[in-house]
Amino acid sequence: MSSSYQYSRLESPEHVRLIHVSPGTMGTTITCEIHRACLPDSPVYEALLYIWDLDERAGQPAEYYCILCGEFQTPIPPNLFSTLQHLRKDAEDLVPCVDAVCIN
């Protein structure tokens, strides 16, 4: 398993990356795949906005959790990890656009 995701170039400014978070239950590993989508094609996704690195802003060292994006480990902040744990579904993919994962 490689240690970090390598972003490929987007085709145009109309393209975005979305993650497809695999179904799962609380406490199990979060796995996902990163897909590219063209905004004029009206992809269905959820925008996930949040504040990250709160610990660093408070002068504390940042703590990160890892999720699996394909074969790559991707570090994410604790509040995003907790949000994905709570939002992911039991039987279908969750498809959010998350800046910490989708933007290089």
Automatic annotation (TrEMBL):
Domain of life from the UniProt record: Eukaryota
InterPro entries, sorted: HetReg/Transcr_Mod
Protein name, entry field: Heterokaryon incompatibility domain-containing protein
Protein source organism: Hyaloscypha bicolor E
